[in-house]
Write a structure and sequence with these properties.
Low-confidence stretches: none
Distance between the termini: 20 Å
Helix content: 25-40%
Largest sheet: 2 strands, parallel
Number of helices: 4
Shape: globular
Strand content: 15-25%
Order of helices and strands: EHEHEHEEEH
Mean pLDDT: 92
């Protein structure tokens, strides 16, 4: 029996320290959820995805793209950096437990059960 390979591509970079950004925005009276356009995120990730993800995927391989979890789709799509006022990033690049939990939910169907 062959091995199953699950490749998780890079998490979209926020571009700034998300918790700090949220605190300072709140102090200015701006509680809008921080986000970035998905198009820019995909453009920044394109070279690494092309280098890491074979096309076509060999049998038994699955790719999980965090931008598919953190970003909306369609015209004007945005990549969220918080959820209900709670940061999904611990800084500019690393997910919090809440942000990582979203990836774990996407990964769970590919893992063996208890």
């Amino acid at each position: 029996m062959g091995k199953r390979v699950i490749l998780i591509t890079s998490v979209p970079e926020a571009g700034w320290n998300v918790p700090r950004h949220m605190v300072f925005a709140h102090l200015r009276g701006d509680d809008a959820a921080p986000s970035l356009p998905r198009k820019g995120i995909e453009e920044r990730l394109a070279a690494s995805v092309q280098a890491l993800v074979p096309d076509p995927l060999p049998p038994g391989q699955t790719v999980i793209r965090p931008e598919d979890i953190l970003c909306s789709t369609g015209p004007g799509a945005l990549c969220r950096q918080s959820d209900a006022g709670i940061p999904l990033y611990a800084d500019a690049d690393h997910l919090t437990n809440r942000g990582a939990g979203l990836l774990v939910q996407a990964l769970a169907p590919y893992l063996p059960g208890p």
